Each structure stands twice: as C-alpha cells, then as structure tokens.
C-alpha cells in the first residue's frame, strides 16, 4: 500500500471516529461535569505530595488506553446489556454522590469503575467491555489508598525496613544501632518516616507492572502471575536499597546532604531500581521454556 493510500485510509478512519464522537458528547460532557472538580482538587492537593505524585501519570495513561481503543466507539452494537449496564451506572452514581457529599475520595474516584462499565454496556455492549476492560480497570490506580489501610500497613513496613537495613549494615561492619524506627549510625540519628515505608511505591509499581503485562500481551498465564506476584517483593527490596543508600549518604556526607537533594532524588532512584528489577525478573523468566508462549517456544 502506498503512503498516499495509507494517509487516505487514516483520514477516513479519523473522520469516521470524529463523526461517532459527536454521538458520545453527552457522555463526555457528563463525565467532565462530574469529575472535573475532583481532578482539580487532586491536582491542587494530593498530587502535589511525594506519595501521590504518580496520579497525573496514571490519568494520562488512562486517557491513552481509551484513545488507543477509540475504534471501539465506532462499533455497531450487536448485544445490548441495558439491565446490567443500568445497575452499574446507578451504582456508580450513588457511590459518587456519597463520596462527594461525605468527602470520601475512595468512593468519589472509585465510582468511575462501575460508571464507565455501565455506560459501556448500555451504549456498546459486551464487545465494548471486552475491548475496554483494561482501560476501565486501570482507573483503579487513580484511587488514593484509604487512610485506615495506610495506617494499618505503614508501621509494620517501617519496622521491617528499619530492621533489615540495620542488620545488613551491621553485618558490613558499620557502627549502627536501632530503636524501633530510629536508626543511629556514627554520630547521626535517622527516623524512618512514613514516606520511607514504601507503601505508596508498592501501589505505583503495581500500576506499572499491570501496564507492562498489558503492553507485552503474554499468553503464558504462569509468567503473568509470576510477574504480578513479584511486584510487591521488588518494591520492598528497592525501598530497602533506598533507605540503606540514604543512611550511608548521611554517614559519609552529613545530615544536610542526606536530608536535602539526595533525599528527594532517592524517590526517583527507587522508581528506577524497581523498574530495573522488574525487567530483569521478567527477562530471567523468559529464559525458561515453561514461562514462554507456545509460539515463542516453537520459533526458538
């Protein structure tokens, strides 16, 4: 096919999509009216914190996933699901109403999932759900972790991180001691704060892991399951390396350096380390035939 023919086909596809987009304007406007105030609140508050800085990225990925499947909105409706779709739509609106009125972000943002699923079933049917399921599922990672969950998990994670960091550095011969989540090394004392528990990095890395598997499109269920199960241990290990690095930076260069630029840079360092570990783990799995797709085994 010539370049001109390809361009003509692309223009026709875009024209067809824009024509169908007009039919979706009421849905788009409704979503904007409902969730724009929520997005503004997140942008001005939670997304400005280190723990929730991944929020805007998740939102952009959600938009990309829907845009990637935009041909779905031009499908001919073959199998309506008005009853199930209406139930999910009403459920989503009720959850949203409770979340907005009671200022519960977990409900306010979480209502997107049943609402989007309901609208899709009503307008496109099951074929739409089959195409858009991951984009709808991925909105889950826009939801901030509920405070009770954060409170329940943060302290145990801090305790374990502190214990492992102290044990490793003690075995390496450093003058280190620990009392709870307070670590003493040389003449310095460091408190392992909530941000160093790694809980939020586990959540953001989980989003990245699911997105990675979706893009890779592995057919091997054992490989997919193994990668998913590796996400939390990898996040914990990367956070442990981050905490040990901060302790050593403080020990060798002083508290000001450790708590200044290096401490802020450590968040990016944690993310990069987690990515590297995830890719290495997946690459290692690929070396064993039991984790390869059948077609991949045939050609290798």
Give a structural overview.
This protein is mainly alpha-helical and 300 residues long. It folds into two domains: 3-142, no CATH class; 147-299, no CATH class. Helices cover 73% and strands 4% of the residues. It is built from 13 helices and three strands. The chain has helices at 3-23, 25-44, 55-68, 82-102, 105-110, 112-123, 126-138, 147-171, 199-216, 221-253, 255-259, 261-285, 294-299, and strands at residues 176-179, 182-185, 188-191. Strands 1-2-3 form a three-stranded antiparallel sheet. Helix 6 runs antiparallel to helix 7 (126-138). The longest helix is centred in the C-terminal third of the chain and has 33 residues, at 221-253. Residues 4-10 have low confidence and may be disordered.
List keywords for this structure.
300 residues; mainly alpha; three-stranded antiparallel beta sheet; 13 helices; 3 strands; 73% helix
Concise structural overview:
The protein is built from 13 helices and three strands; from the N terminus they run ααααααααβββααααα. It is mostly helical and 300 residues long. It has two domains: 3-142, no CATH class; 147-299, no CATH class.
Based on helices, strands and strand pairing, what is the structural class? mainly alpha
Radius of gyration equals 24 Å
Order of helices and strands: HHHHHHHHEEEHHHHH
**Termini separation:** 31 Å
Instruction: Provide the helix percentage.
Output: over 70%
Shape: globular
The number of distinct structural domains comes to 2
Largest sheet: 3 strands, antiparallel
* Percent strand: under 5%
Number of strands: 3
Total helices: the number is 13
């Amino acid at each position: 096919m010539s370049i001109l023919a390809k361009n003509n086909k692309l223009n026709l596809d875009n024209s067809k999509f824009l024509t169908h987009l007009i039919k979706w304007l009421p849905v788009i406007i409704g979503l904007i009216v409902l969730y724009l105030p929520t997005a503004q609140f997140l942008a001005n508050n939670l997304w400005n914190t280190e723990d929730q800085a991944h929020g805007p990225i998740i939102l952009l990925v959600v938009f990309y996933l829907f845009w990637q499947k935009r041909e779905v909105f031009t499908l001919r409706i073959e199998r309506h699901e008005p009853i199930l779709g209406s139930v999910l739509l009403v459920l989503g609106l009720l959850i949203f109403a409770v979340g907005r009125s009671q200022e519960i972000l977990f409900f306010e943002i979480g209502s997107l999932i049943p609402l989007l699923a309901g609208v899709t079933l009503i307008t496109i049917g099951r074929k739409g759900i089959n195409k858009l399921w991951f984009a709808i599922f991925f909105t889950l990672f826009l939801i901030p972790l509920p405070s009770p969950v954060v409170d329940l998990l943060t302290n145990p994670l801090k305790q374990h991180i502190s214990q492992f960091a102290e044990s490793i550095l003690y075995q390496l011969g450093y003058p280190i001691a620990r009392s709870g989540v307070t670590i003493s090394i040389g003449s310095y004392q460091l408190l392992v704060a909530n941000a160093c528990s790694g809980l939020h990095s586990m959540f953001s890395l989980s989003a990245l892991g699911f997105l990675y598997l979706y893009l890779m499109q592995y057919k091997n269920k054992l490989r997919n399951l193994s990668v998913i199960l590796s996400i939390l241990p990898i996040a914990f290990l990367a956070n442990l390396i981050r905490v040990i690095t901060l302790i050593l930076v403080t020990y060798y260069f002083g508290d000001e350096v450790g708590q200044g630029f290096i401490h802020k840079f450590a968040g990016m360092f944690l993310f990069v380390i987690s990515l590297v570990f995830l890719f290495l783990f997946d690459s290692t799995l690929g070396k064993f035939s039991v984790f390869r797709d059948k077609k991949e085994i045939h050609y290798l």
